[in-house]
Amino acid sequence: MGAASDSHQYWLDRGPLLQALHHSPQLLTLAELLSGRPMAPFQAAYLYYPPGAYCGLHTDRPEFELQMLVHLRGDIGPLLLHPELASASAAEIAEHGGARTSGGGVPLTYPEHGVTVFRGAGIPHERPLHHGPDIGVVLALNYHAR
Fold it and tell me: How far is Cα 73 from Cα 137, in angstroms, rounded to an integer?
């Protein structure tokens, strides 16, 4: 399991459109091309960030081998990646992480059109405090090896 973190966010992992997109042949092919091996859909969710939302420093579940993130709505700031902590244990990551942000990090901004792809299980990351004024929404599609 990934490293625990303090967070204040909401997510929804249901709906026919979400499932159809997650299982689309085009995105599955893209996941396989990017990873270099056969992949299968694992989990998908809409992530909601109202003003004041954040997600502290953490790694994702090991089953999330490849993640595709799409900005859907709102003025969401960048995800902050911490590749310098890639070999750290869950306990060490928890020591570095703060309730709102650990500071520093490499910003991963969302393109206006398209998808952001990364390996959240291997690269510790965090979402700093969302200042709003409206709710930000990110689509997260997670894939794992077959």
Answer: 5
DSSP per-residue letters across the chain? -PPP--EE-EEE---HHHHHHHT-HHHHHHHHHHHTS-EEEEEEEEEEE-TT-EEEEE---TT--EEEEEEEES----EEE-GGGTT--HHHHHHH--SS--S--EEEPPPSSS-EEE-TTTS-EEEPPP--SS-EEEEEEEEEE-
Q: Cβ neighbours of residue 21 under 8 Å, at least 6 residues apart?
A: 27, 44, 139, 141
Q: Give, for all 146 residues of the chain, the pLDDT tens digit.
A: 344 445 556 667 788 899 999 999 999 999 999 999 999 999 999 988 898 888 888 889 888 899 999 999 998 888 999 999 899 888 888 777 654 555 688 999 888 888 999 888 899 999 888 888 899 899 999 999 99
Q: Could you tell me which residues are beta bridge partners of residue 96?
A: none
Q: Distance between CA 104 and CA 131 in Å, rounded? A: 18
Q: Which amino acid is at 2?
A: G
Q: Residue 4 — φ and ψ, nearest 5°?
A: -70, 155
